[in-house]
Design goal:
Shape: globular
Protein name: DUF3667 domain-containing protein
Largest sheet: none
Number of strands: 0
Strand content: under 5%
InterPro entries: DUF3667
Transmembrane segments: 114-134, 182-200, 220-238, 253-275, 287-312
Keywords: Membrane, Transmembrane, Transmembrane helix
Number of domains: 2
Distance between the termini: 94 Å
Organism: Hymenobacter jeollabukensis
Number of helices: 14
Length: 313
Amino acid sequence: MRTAGKLARLRRLALRNHPVRLPVSATAPTVDVGAACATCGTALQGPFCHHCGEKRLDHHDYHLGHFLEHAVDTATHFDLKVVKGGWSLLRRPGLMTREVLAGRRVPWPKPLQLFLVVNLLFVFAAHKLHLQIFNTPWRYHVDNWYGGWAAGRMQHLAARRGITLDQLAEQFNASANVLSKTLIFAFIPLLALLLTALFWRQRRYFLEHVVTGTHLISQILLVELVMIAPGTALIWLINRARAQPLDFGNRDLVATAIITLSITAWAAVLLRRTYGGGAVAATARGLAVGIGFFWLLINVYRPLLFLVTYWLL
């Protein structure tokens, strides 16, 4: 009995000094401790950097569900990073996008957060300056490629309600004025699809193009605001040099050309910094974005605005 007791005590001492190590399940989550933080370079001890708080980039970050999980939180917060991000889109286009896609996201605002603030700024300025780039009253829909079909729908609805087409058009314009501010969001997936076509050889995640598209539409809105003063000055100089001032159609044509060239220039720099490539290729892709934006505006955004407004009347 004494011998058995001694053996039991020896066994307990052995286990205490040399504990049995159970094999780790292959399905258990692991962290590459040797990896470095993408933002500050500190060695990671877990999924978050203990020095700056940056989260380690993972394939899950480019899943659509993960992107949408943060939409509500993104929409309800504001900080000075938004100012930094907006300035970067104009001062050093593509720097923020490249950093965010590389996993260095702590110094920058979230893409949706930046877009919402820039969109709010643009809507406020457009209201004060009476700009109608996105807001499309009924008369503009009639002159578009779907105008005949749209006029038939509106006439049918007016007859069913027992009112005139002009009265229905007033209701339409009031609703379209509100909805146009929200539907600018549609340019994010539309530009992402355009970027997917332009950079299909790089085989990137679609959500990477969504991030870039979000930065692009934010940049486009800022560029349109920045170019208001130079564009107005140029039209004034043209009118001074001409015997007869430009009519509305020609003024609109000049303004569209100025905005298209400006979008092309800024987008080319953003795309080159983000995706790489030479100057010629970047310029061609920037021009594709500039022309593509107005093509989407006329052929996709305005029909979508009509359909949503008509459906909600």
